[in-house]
Specification:
The protein has 448 residues and is an alpha+beta fold. Among the domains are: 110 residues; 145 residues, Sandwich (Immunoglobulin-like). 27% of the residues lie in helices and 33% in strands. It contains eight helices and 26 strands. The strands form six sheets. Strands 3, 4, 7, 8, 9, 10, 11, 13, 14 and 25 form a ten-stranded mixed beta sheet that branches. A six-stranded mixed beta sheet has the order 12-22-23-19-16-15, covered by helices on one side. A hairpin with a 4-residue loop joins β22 and β23. α3 packs antiparallel against α4, α3 packs antiparallel against α6 and α5 runs antiparallel to α6. The longest helix has 29 residues. The protein is globular. The N terminus is likely disordered.
Length: 448
């Protein structure tokens, strides 16, 4: 469940509380394990604990539950799976580090008492932090394997950025490379990468101001006096917007503009990325060498940890499957409002009285777990009891992690849910990625 910011949304959520399904209703029967290696299992446990913190913070105030759905998700989707995961891991951790195992066992027991007593969310957060710290020694570098590629991607972007300007809600990072063909796959899967007469591949790394998470589905332009050039999204070691261009010699200014990303929203993302962002870079070119008068990238905000969006997406997924170029997670939650783009404006889509679920897909790059945005994702839901089939188009959504989702009514029964992914229209610097569509099938039965 996403944290809701607007007053009206809070009122709506309270009014719908009585019809929110519990996690027991949302969970599938007999879903498989998500983690395999020892480190993956430890990382999954940490993910459940952090998920507990996030949901509990929105659920409890002054010893009272103010949002039952958030509380149910904190306990049934976070704490209970964490307790179950620790039961399976405790012997292995104990064999490697008896002191750490003892600290985690005591910490999880203390966490359960805090949650049952509806204690201050700050105490819950501190307890989770202590447990996570006790587990750090079980992870190489203190980082779960599922997060390493995302962290490496951010570091690669920071290393390449010649200068970064923070403006409005955006970070604009200026990068240049030797010109390279930018390839695309067409709808038939045919590859083309035309050559161009250019001096440089110019790129702007567009990221969220506080977190350095990449932003997709935006229109980005750059202008240095020869007319605005549209920079298209390019997937590489990190996502950036770029084009092969002819840059002038000497000193000049590059003006960069970004329109608000056309990504739909949950309530917690309504206040961000709603205005056009602009930045001006003072640039000097001498042949192939380009320098920029702008500071190097600064750190993320103090209360954010790079990769925690991936961690939460994995923790929330009922089941994960690898198909094609993707790792696909299926998520089922209680109904909640979303905001969608219509005629250039974000329009509220409140949950209707008979809606029962908010279904989501978390989409990752296979092999790295980097979150993939700007794809087209749909669900084909076949009721295995009645045979009735429906197709549900999912919205690309911004929230605590970028995902695809839709709020809807789901009739009772056992379902075969087929997730269909059409690749994002990213430019590529080499062949082999996001060439074709992919499908993954999940068996799901909401429990009564």
């Amino acid at each position: 469940m996403r944290t809701l910011l607007a007053i009206g949304v809070l009122v709506f959520a309270a009014g719908c509380e009585q019809k929110q399904p519990s996690r027991a209703q949302l969970a599938p029967k007999g879903s498989g394990e998500k983690a395999s290696s020892y480190e993956d299992q430890v990382g999954e446990l940490v993910g459940y604990l952090r998920f507990t913190t996030n949901e509990y913070a929105a659920a409890v105030r002054d010893g009272q539950v103010i949002d039952k759905q958030e509380f149910d998700e904190a306990t049934l989707m976070g704490l209970k799976p964490a307790e179950r995961a620790w039961k399976g891991l405790s012997v292995q951790v104990g064999a490697k580090d008896a002191a750490a195992a003892k600290a985690v066992t005591e910490g999880i027991a203390a966490l359960r008492k805090l949650v049952d007593a509806k204690e201050d969310p700050a105490k819950v957060a501190n307890a989770v932090s202590a447990i996570s710290k006790a587990l750090e020694g079980q992870l190489a570098g203190g980082v779960a394997p599922a997060l390493r590629a995302t962290i490496a991607s951010v570091r690669a972007a920071d290393a390449d950025i010649k200068g970064e300007i923070v403006a409005d809600d955006y970070r604009f990072g200026f990068v240049t490379f030797a010109p390279r063909p930018i390839g695309h796959y067409d709808d038939k899967g045919e590859w083309s990468a035309p050559q161009s007469a250019a001096t440089h591949l110019l790129g702007i790394v567009v990221r969220e101001k506080g977190t350095k998470r990449p932003l997709a589905s935006a229109k980005v332009t750059a202008d240095w006096g020869a007319g605005a050039v549209t920079l298209g999204p390019i997937w590489g070691d990190y996502l950036f917007y770029g084009a092969n261009v002819a840059l002038p010699e000497g000193n000049f200014t590059v003006k960069v503009a970004i329109e608000p990303p056309k990504i739909c929203r949950h309530g917690d993302a309504l206040a961000s990325f709603m205005t056009e962002g602009r930045a001006e870079f003072k640039v000097t070119r001498h042949g192939a060498e380009v320098t920029v008068e702008a500071p190097r990238p600064g750190p993320v905000i103090a209360d954010y940890r790079i990769g925690c969006d991936v961690e939460q997406a994995v923790a929330e997924s009922i089941e994960l499957k690898e198909e094609g170029d993707y790792r696909i997670g299926f998520i089922a939650e209680g109904p909640e409002p979303i905001w969608v783009w219509e005629s250039g404006k974000l329009v509220s889509r409140p949950a209707k009285e008979d809606d029962t679920h908010h279904l989501e897909v978390a989409l990752f790059e296979r092999g790295t777990n980097r979150i993939v945005m700007a794809a087209q994702v749909s669900l084909e839901m076949k009721n295995r009891t009645t045979g009735a089939t429906r197709t549900v188009e999912l919205h690309n959504l911004l929230s605590e992690f970028a995902h695809y989702g839709q709020t809807l009514k789901v009739d009772s029964g056992a379902y075969e849910v087929t997730v269909r992914v059409v690749p994002p229209k990213y430019g590529l610097l080499e062949e082999g990625k996001f060439r074709g569509s992919a499908t993954a099938v999940f068996l799901w039965e909401p429990r009564s």
